[in-house]
């Protein structure tokens, strides 16, 4: 084998070949213009990294990166592990064999394990069981890992008959079983599946159960482990729990960045309005950092209109407030400063995922004033105590009657363990923040064009002298006025504050730029530094951690993290292009076309526009038209008409009269209530088609009807488009049989559209919020923490497999702009984080659309038990192959003959992969992460020929055992 070095990307680095998972130090690097070290091209092996488990907060960080940004106290600890090293035909030490189950040792790919089989003639429950000591498990949050292999379709079918579960018992002897569903398909190597569990203190026994649901079951496993994860603590990485407090005071502020001096990643916001029928409508909030302030030189300026403006902070660790004083108190003391142009009502809410802890109401008046109050909350159960480590504090400014934008200001927000008298208490002696490259606060941020430099800022703010913080109770919760501290009296001397570990990680959490420095911070004056460097296309996260000594060997003072994306912002989007996005609650991002989508799907139910029994308000519909014009995107309007014919005729006419923007199509849904649904729907289709021909002659009419398994595609004219449905399944390819049947039913002449391909996207943000998937009295199975890369790849695959049915318009259910209402939204459709910074899925969508928007699918190749290849040809003569395997991270090798180095292989985020040859064969490794093979025009014929040979070899070659 020979590995050829990658060409430089933008003259600085190519990140795809850099890997040092498990190393204590980074590889050799070169100085960059920004003062740090950048890693040049390296033909290093990346297989281990891409097979590694993703963990919330720390992701796939190497040992080097974890040492610089994760405290040693929070390293996961294994509570139980069994690697089946001593399995024999006669026994499995520590396990009980149930029924007629058969076990045997196996040795595959250098790993030992066991194979459990249940004969076809077996009856009753058959399998394995193991009792565990519950002492280290009770009251803990853990991750349970199962490492298995499934190397053939026959084994995949047998694996589907296996039940994996835990059986738990409480102190009263009540027993419960929690199933742990297996997701698997054919894969060439070992795969790890994980489940997240919480155990109550009342847990008295726990048994791991592996048994057959029916005869013929089979499981090949080599490792089962239980690891304590403490996700609640990891979820607050940076705020209270990880910050060393001032020894001179017991006052602790749980709110990070409450004086807005270190940037915007510590809070998030939205506007909460109403549809005409009263339903809640969420939109982006416009705000700015303003010079007038109480603490430091910034406050938050909020543009308030005729709706609620919400600013929220979180996650907050309320348990840490009690830890600071050693008392488990029930009072949480709130203090903040605010002002408005006219009197404004404000509601402040403190809550956890499961309950509201309290609400306080204030009237904000002109002029800076301090407002104070307190929340009383008790924690009756272990779960309620646990939830206090992940709380949210929200400020709802009520803009009722404000027809023009009004200005409100917020500053010096404190939530403390005791009342305070000082204007502001910083949550730590020193706060660190990152200022992103994008300044648009009401849309996607931190999107950088591939031809531009990546520029971001670092800000460090030192607290005032500790004597300014007076630990005395506030005797009143009434507003009180005071003058701002005189900045001329503040000290200006500089002094070192520790060491700053600064790293840029790519989507695989590989460090691509690193620097360690000892900043000199003025007292009372922020330390500001700007960094500018070049990075190739892809997703990146900046991590900045300030230590009081050497990174990894001292205490964390403060921490900040920020996501960003380098994309091709200026790539043209063809008219009537294939790929679209969903507009969540009518929110259309002005950056939609920069992501490669020329259209969005917006649902406009008639009921939401109904203001009274006999009146409809089309103002929001007109607003949507104005937004689509500004964003330069076409609209697919999803309409559901009123019930009676005279009303729906008038309504449909008004909808089209009141819309003046590019309209790609109208997707008409069947009547919700009708005695003759087919006949009435046909009448509506004819009526709307006539209106379109008069008002928008180029627009399409889509017959939006739920078409699923066993449902026939309705008859329709050739001019109609039929919208099909995909189900949300873990493995997207499970929808292929449905799509194939739909294409067969529709025939070649009928055009198909899928306007909402379901997605479930993960977040790379260091603030995961997990919901409960299944609960019994002594244990909970948490919703799987979605790997942001695997989930983004599955999104791309869900879109690409629509080619099976030759779907003309593919709308992804991902939303380019979805304002967060709360930390607990769990919105897996967002392409962005709470602060509108990108998720990896955003980069994946942009990479896919820029490659394939002007491409035509020419071939679909399925390799038996291995993978699938979609071959496209582009208008400029290039060819693109999208390649993946439906399940598993273990790589499969595809040998492609006679391909030169001009043919690029990149992952689904645009990372260029090493050039690897075996003889005259170019080796491309595939797994469930989508990769693209891109050939220039002169290499297109060679790529076609290589695919022919690959398909022939897979069809007539020797049996591979799959």
Structural class: mainly beta
Identify the quaternary structure here.
Answer: single chain
Shape: globular
Mean pLDDT: 83
> How much strand?
35-45%
Q: How many helices in DSSP terms?
A: 13
Q: Helical content, roughly?
A: 10-25%
Distance between the termini: 25 Å
Q: Would you report the number of β strands?
A: 53
Q: Whole-number radius of gyration?
A: 29 Å
Note the main sheet. Answer: 8 strands, antiparallel
Enumerate the spans where pLDDT stays under 50 for 5 or more consecutive residues.
1-24, 41-45, 232-248, 324-328, 465-491, 957-962
Secondary structure: elements and pairs:
Blueprint: E1 2-4, E2 30-31, E3 37-38, H1 47-51, H2 63-69, E4 77-82, E5 96-98, E6 102-108, E7 111-117, E8 127-132, E9 141-149, H3 153-159, E10 162-170, E11 175-179, E12 190-199, E13 203-212, E14 218-228, H4 231-234, E15 267-274, E16 280-283, E17 287-290, E18 299-304, E19 308-316, H5 319-325, E20 331-340, E21 344-351, E22 356-364, E23 369-376, H6 382-387, E24 391-398, E25 406-416, E26 430-435, E27 447-449, E28 454-462, E29 494-496, E30 499-506, E31 511-517, E32 520-522, E33 527-533, E34 538-547, E35 556-567, E36 579-582, E37 599-605, H7 619-631, E38 634-640, H8 645-657, E39 663-668, H9 677-695, E40 700-704, E41 720-723, H10 736-746, E42 751-757, E43 772-776, E44 779-782, H11 788-800, E45 809-815, H12 840-852, E46 855-863, E47 867-874, E48 879-884, E49 892-897, E50 904-907, E51 915-918, E52 921-926, E53 931-935, H13 940-956
Parallel strand pairs: 27-35, 36-37, 36-45, 37-38, 38-39, 39-40, 40-41, 41-42, 42-45
Antiparallel strand pairs: 1-51, 2-3, 3-31, 4-14, 5-8, 6-7, 7-14, 8-13, 9-12, 9-14, 10-11, 10-13, 12-44, 15-16, 15-19, 17-18, 18-25, 19-24, 20-23, 20-25, 21-22, 21-24, 26-28, 28-33, 29-32, 30-31, 30-34, 34-35, 43-44, 46-47, 47-48, 48-53, 49-52, 50-53, 51-52
Helix pairs in contact: 8-9, 11-12
